[in-house]
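Lab notebook, bench 4. The sequencing result for the construct came back, and we need a structural model before the next group meeting so we can plan mutations. Quick request posted to the team channel:

Model the 3D structure of this chain.
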Amino acid sequence: MGANSSLPERTQASARSAFARLSQAYVVSDGELSARDKKKKASKFATLRKKLIRARRHSRSLDYGKALRELISTWHVRDISALVHEYEALAALKELAAAASLARPIAHTLRQDLATLYEYKFCTDVDLIYRGACFPAHRSILSLRSPFFRNLLSHHPDYGASVLVKLKTPRVDIHLFSALLRYLYTDELNTQELSIETNEILPQLAEEFGIPNQLEHDLKVLLDNSENSDAVLVFSSENDQAEMLGASLAEASQSMHCSNRTSKLEFPCHKAILAARSPFFRNLIIRRARSGEELTERALHTPSRIVLDESVISRRYARVLLNAVYQDTVDLSCIVRGSSSMCSLSEVQAMVSSGRCQMTIVDEAMEIYQIGQFLDFPVLSQGCEDIIVDSLSLDNLTAVLNWSSEPHGSRWVHRQAMNFLTEEFLQLAHSPGLVDLNKEYLLEALRSDFLQVGELDVLTSVLKWGEHQLVRRIEEREPNILSHTAHSVTKKGVKKRDLNDVELRDILAEMLPLVRMDHVIPYNNDTLNNAIKRGLVSTPPSHMIGDESTGQRMCAWVRGKNNGVFVRPRLFTPYYEEAKAILEEQLSQAHDQDAGRVRMLNISSIPDTLYMVEDRHYAMPYALAPASTVDIIAGTIPVPDRNTYVTMLQREAELQRSKVAQRAYSLPCSDKRAVSFQIQLRVVREFGMPDSTTEVMTNSQYYYTEDNTHYAERRYIASPTRQKHSPAVSLSPPGSYSPVENEASSDSVLSDMMPDIAMATSSMSQMHMHEDFELDIGDGSSRHGTLYI
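Done. Here's the predicted structure in token form:
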């Protein structure tokens, strides 16, 4: 069944189902035995692989769980509950951080782009006249999608012809005719907007126009057959251009006619489809039409030649590009492989620098990603991003991180690669790829609260990386006596006892403070003790400084002990699962004894004493922390226009009302500021803006000066961290000083670090509030009163 069919829909559906059943029966009868055997073998291997992976991970979890159980088995149930609450808050924050990491602008689909093409009439080549109204359209799309228009337009082959449309079906007005044309472009027809009478005549219109196939199927046919093509992509190199310049016009045309080389570089296509999918092609086609080149091509009846520089876009990727334009998919199997002459300059440089003779799938996806960026074609770029992330492994992790951190790389890929690094850090720590990891990536991973590894392995990995860097430094300093020979140090090797601990400490000066020494368990391990003896750890863990009682060890894990040594634990899954299991055991035992006497504490993420300021590094991951001060420099932070900003606020409010966000806000140990920051990160990334735009959302009163009242109301209503009776006061502009700090503001560094009661003491004398309250004194009755300040 194709576009030429005019059978009723029920007949076509039955024929298709019968054909499908027939095809399925043929496949089963032909290779039933071999398919079943292959399925049995595959299922056996898959089951074995799952068992091995489950056993390996379970054994590792048991080892780590045993270390944590030895630490907290003697704790009080309240302290274990506080630790579990800490893990739960981090788990909720991690879920929001993962959503923010995956956020990116949504690329327009094929249907959306063709709908825009129909609305804005790009590159139209025929005018349909119906009931006195003119509908500019595209011959290639209408002829492919409808037998009625194919027959009609075949009688008017001239460019820009005005074609009078007459329909046999009665009561088809201009609005319905436009809806039918839109359906041929998009495969979408909103029957709810049509009247009842219109819905009744749709079967008659289907019989007259013909029922098209799926849009993707028809466009694939259009690409493969090149029917009604009016453009051709030409890939030209410097040698081709030199030959064309050196030869006369007649000789050049003759050589093009006789040689097959040029024909291999040409790919027929359609200007309308190119203009709909890529602003680059659209602007190029419009510019050619304005310059008059298109008139010459129409007079000669030749397609428009769109010449692309092969040093920028290789011809081996031409089919991948066109397949993405016509099919909305990135298929790397369309790449022409096996010819080094078809590689672009950047591809050759990549192969030379990496020492490989052949590019991998990840390398090819990186190249095509840059083509998508150059052509302003998000479908192509995002498809390549997905291929790169799906192909991530420990072997190519360093290469992907290096590429994605370049100006021409993908920030989205970089975020996913860093997530892969934090999730698979334990495997990386035991692989040779650890020593090749760049310092900045290792620092970024160590700052994360979500690093999936025990702190003892973190310390071991940092020392291993630093010792390897020191060996490299020694090899570079060692003079090479004989030219073109290996270094003498490399020959004899460097012993561990020969390493200079002072120099090693300088190398690890930025990393060792990020290792949470108080969480290195078991405490009596040789790695930590040797690091302290070598002078690498300047400040020993707190349990080594004071007494070694259980309470001292507990203070580093549980917040609210009033000792200032609390360090937020990483969300290491085996620790989290073991802590929950121990808490359930303790609660069951307490319930058997006297569960009513167990009182769980609702601990806030804010310190419980006025003199203690929590370390900001562990209050929120460094990589996730927003800017602590407002630094407004013209042009450094892209400020969205007011309409876009309002839409962003609506999206932020929508995400704050989600179940995940509400749960994250409501958890006892939740860092509400970090939760809000992750939501804002997701919003700005969905709108295609850099992460620095979160500064605009946090301090919008500095960027939208005429709407301070709206800003204050928005922060008062949207933020779940505000009290019910907080006044919505307009903020002061930068540079001014006000003794009363607005509670709805978050730009003050001190208000972010100090408890709320500490901030309130500075303004108590200047504020007069009264509030009704209800007091429950525990005797079953309640007292009402008014509080005056």
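Strands lie at 126-130, 133-137, 161-164, 231-236, 266-269, 304-309, 770-776, 782-788.
Will bring this to the meeting.
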